[in-house]
Amino acid sequence: xxxxxxxxxxxxxxxDKPAGVVVNKAETLQxxxxxxxxxxxxxxxxxxxxxxxxxxxxxxxxxxPEEIFVQRQGLVHRLDKNTxxxxxxAKNPGSLVNLLSQFKNRQVKxxxxxxTHGKFRVPTGTISAPLGRMSTDRHKFAVVPQGxxxxxxxxxxxxxxxxxxxxQEKLGKMVKKxxxxxxxxxxxxxxxxGRTHQIRVHMKHWKHPLVGDIKYVGKKRxxxxxxxxxxxxxxxxxxxxFHPRSGKKVSLTANLAKDLSEVLTLLQA
Length: 269
Hints:
Strands 1, 2, 3, 4, 5, 8, 10, 11 and 12 form a 9-stranded mixed sheet that branches. A two-stranded antiparallel ribbon has the order 6-7. Strands 9-13 form a two-stranded antiparallel sheet. It is 22% helix and 27% strand. The protein starts with a strand and ends with a strand. It is of the alpha+beta class. It folds into 2 domains: 1-105, 2-Layer Sandwich (Pseudouridine synthase); 110-236 and 256-269, Pseudouridine synthase (2-Layer Sandwich), CATH 3.30.2350.10. It contains 7 helices and 13 strands.
């Protein structure tokens, strides 16, 4: 697996996860997962003194740092299969529980870039809406009253009136359906909580589903999107956290993935 490494030291490994790669392996998964890649790479990890990295308020109700490390195999968080960008992993039990604590206490700051359908009436704002699984489809999430709290900050960076000539050529015979499009917004998002599909569902809730998100964009626009956008346009651009050993704030970024950059060349400003 060709996984670009952004940063690596004795405690952490930060990668630019490509789209199409699943993070967690599973018995039903027939392809290699990022977890498989990490296990292979872990064979070369050097043993370090990690006990001092464990937070003072560590709660062992769910196991010791060693047990949690074996269970999670160094994975701190995850990205959806078709989301690209910055992902941090731990190389020892101390750094793992330290980073997990930071995520739990919302000390980790995440910035995403997405392309959505439509023009926002309010270019900067906050979406606060509880999320939970849909009763009709357990693989999808929705805004539900009894859901878990979820907050996303957003800022529109650019607006495109539609597809340019090259983009319309991608539609072929489906270009007659182009009236389904009402412009596109390039948006930066800062999720304040870490719910599954949070940005994707929040944007749909505000009538601005992500371009290429076949799970939430709706059947008609999904048929058009797939012709010029290979996947959901969502990229984890930046991750900020405190280094488990030094305590210094770390900011790591990943440039917009090549396939998404190419999508932007098909838009008309």
